[in-house]
Design a protein that fits this description.
- With about 200 residues, the chain is of the alpha+beta class.
- It has helices at about 5-15, 20, 25-40, 55-80; strands spanning about 85, 90-95, 105, 115, 120-125, 130, 140, 145-150, 155, 165-170, 180-185, 190.
């Protein structure tokens, strides 16, 4: 080392450090950031930077459910099986066909889990010009530990891309006009920020 100048050692050390040579982001880091941004923009992660009005909260919840229904329609096609939507008075959740063709809840999918609306809000499901009464889910656990007693869903997303047609109104406390999501048999799902006139 006696005959090598100090500046040559520093250049060699800088060139041999791969982290400093390729400064920037890895592909994995970029994918994680893109994934987080897409979740935020899709409404699955709520960022509250202030207090939203009741109307804004209702609009946000309607947009969230609309995107979730679109996702469910795509998921039923991709997984090759029907997915059902159960509407309670103030909550909703999704079910799929089990091994014995019974309807079972999604236990491993956080997005399709039971979703409770804020207090004072309610859902109204309408099919073929008739209001469908909300279901009451009263699951029991059998001897194998499986949840049984799941009622059949009124709305089904088929793996062919078709959907049981429906209108779903979302009412919030202190807001006279509901927001609405409408699905047609061909799989088209639309959101109306005010319910359509009868």
């Amino acid at each position: 080392m006696a005959g090598i100048p100090l500046s040559s050692l520093l250049i060699f050390q800088l060139r041999s450090s791969p982290r400093e040579q390729h400064a920037g982001f890895t592909l994995l880091e970029l994918l994680i950031v893109i994934f987080i941004i897409s979740l935020i923009s899709a409404g699955f992660i709520k960022l509250n930077l202030g207090f939203a009005s009741a109307t804004q909260s209702l609009e946000n919840e309607t947009k969230r459910l609309h995107r979730l229904l679109d996702l469910t329609a795509q998921k039923s096609i991709l997984r090759g099986g029907a997915i059902g939507l159960l509407i309670e008075a103030d909550a909703y959740h999704f079910v799929s066909r089990g091994r014995n063709f019974e309807w079972v809840t999604f236990d491993g999918d956080d997005i399709l889990q039971h979703h409770q609306l804020p207090q004072g809000w309610r859902l109204e499901l309408k099919q073929y010009d008739e209001i469908i009464p909300p279901i009451v889910v009263n699951l029991k656990v059998d001897e194998t530990g499986a949840k049984v007693g799941q009622p059949p869903p009124a709305v089904v997303f088929y793996d062919s891309g078709e959907i049981t047609p429906f209108q779903l109104r979302i009412y919030a406390a202190d807001i006279p006009d509901p927001f609405m999501i409408e699905a047609k048999e061909n799989g088209e799902i639309a959101m109306h920020l005010q319910a359509l006139e009868e």
